[in-house]
Structure formats: structure tokens, C-alpha cells
Amino acid sequence: MRVLVRCAALLLAAASPVAAQSAIGVGTSAGVVKLTDQRSEEALSGVLEYQPNAWLSLYAIPAVLHLSDNVNGRPVSSSGLGDLPLVVAASYASPTPGSPTVGAALLAVLPTGNAACGLGSGQTAAGLDLGVAISPRLAHLAVDASRSLSGASAQSSLDAPKATALHVEAGYDVAPRWTWTASVGVDVGSDSTQALSRVIGAGVRHTLAHSLMVTIDGSHGLTAASPRWILSVGVGTAFGGSSPVTPTTPLRRLKSTFNSGNTAKIGCR
Predict the structure, then answer these.
(1) Is position 18 within any domain?
(2) Does 235 reside within a domain?
(3) Of 13, 132, 144, 161, whose CB neighbour count within 10 A is largest?
């Protein structure tokens, strides 16, 4: 009996540091994107994050979508659940002050949406993201690249599925709980299925208490193939994108909000 008690005590002692390091975060974002003069998409997305330790994060990002368009002078629309992105992100930060953080993420998008109504791709997709970030004092700078590995676009319904998406994002802590950020997103490579996009974005993040944040983000397209504009508002302790080093910067929050739509068509067939 004493042996069992001692073994149980040893197991609890070994598990305590792991439990202390693990964390669960939740968040929600609501946004609207104007794709063309006639076509728009509204989304309400949730984020569930589980961190079993300091370097690993797991995300699930469900969303409810409403799409509207004007086809041959007739308004059409679709509403319902979109596809479900699942993300496994790992990062490493050196304990040396000013050292960069490096990371990688794997993304799988499950076809939970109704593709016949434009609410999903209708197929499972996989993607990869690599990134590096550095935060000298109050400033923050990050660069990452993401690409779909199989299926339709695993990055976002706003990206060309066969292109590589590059993001450069910079931020500055203007006050103890306020951070302003700016972003540039560029699709590179070739894709015969969808034109390449170029966007700029800006956002503000305010920390209310502990890790609870309120975010406001917007972006503007620079080319005819880009979304006209995007606006998103979020609140929570988690804002998961596929970036392993910058999940809480504007373009990442916007892409996770609009990750599960289908820009190719709309209305049930």
C-alpha cells in the first residue's frame, strides 16, 4: 500500500510541471470582406487553443459564413458552417534577449462546409507555414511564408491555392497595453486557378487583463485580384492563424476569420 502511495505521489509530482505549463485559450472574431463590387462575405469564427507546453500550440477554428452576390442582376446568398481548419504550431525562442523566434506549423482543413453552396472547398486540404520573428524592446517584426501542400487552398479562401503567401508584419507597443501593427501580404509563384493577391493591413490590439485582448483589423487590396477591403473585430485570449510565430498580427487574424469560404461560386447548386 505504501509503495502504491509513493508511486502515485511521484506521478503527481512529475505531472505537476506539465499541468502548470499547459493552457487553454478561446477567442471569437466577426468580420466582413468585400471581394468585388457585387460579392461580399461575412464570417463569425471561433478559436480554441490548447498549449500543452510553452513551444507547442494546437488550434481549431470553426466559422459560420454568410455569402452574397449578384448574378445576372439577381441577388443570391448562402449561409452556414464553413470548413474547419486545424493547426499544429511549434516555435522556439532563445532565452537570450533580442534573439529571434523561429517556428513551423502544419494546417489541415476538414471539409465540414457545404461546397455546393459555396461554403467550403469540398475536400480536405493541407498546408505548411514557416516563420521567424524578433522583438527588440517595444518593436516587433515578423516574416513568414505559407503554402498549400494538397487539396484546395489551406491558407485561406482569399489566397491562390497553388501560390506561396509571404507576409511581413511590424508592430510597436505604443503604451503598456496597446500595440499597433502593419502588414504586407503578397502571393508569389504561378497559379492558373486563381489570380495572385497583394494586400496591406493595419490593426490595433488592446490587452484588457492578463491575456484577454480586443483586436480591430483591416486590410485593402492593391490589385484587381485582391479583396477590395476587409474588416474584423475580435475578443478573447486566442487568435489562431497558421503562423507559428505571429498568430496575433492583422493579416493572420483576418485570414483565420475568412479561412473556410469558397470564392469560386455562391448559392446552392
Answers:
(1) no
(2) yes
(3) 144
